[in-house]
Amino acid sequence: MNWIDLDSSEQLEKLIADSNNQSFVIFKHSTRCSISSMAKNRLERQASQNIQIPFYFLDLLAYRSISNAIAEKLNVPHESPQLLLIENGQCTFSSSHGAIDMEELKEAVSRSQN
Length: 114
Known about the structure:
The chain has helices at about 10-20, 35-45, 65-75, 100-114; strands at about 5, 25-30, 55-60, 80-85, 90-95. The protein is of the alpha/beta class. The protein has a single domain (about 5-114), classed as Glutaredoxin (3-Layer(aba) Sandwich). Strand 4 (about 80-85) and strand 5 (about 90-95) form a beta hairpin.
């Protein structure tokens, strides 16, 4: 899996603005949480599902303010771990904790492309 670090508010603003042309995924991860680590490992094992959109990795301990901005700008309650699909300036899919699954994300991406 090719994670792209999400580490600035400016980067988030640009990604949201550009999401009309390019959908993307944010994985919000707490490096101190075993549930978050299990969800991340599951995503990485399922990466062969071959979803062709960028995956951004948000370290919640280092960048909690970015998570707060996501909640505010996209009207999505903060959870950890959390997987978000962003399209056309809004969150169109969200899952958290044990519900994080690449197959469900793949289905959400497929629905939005039809």
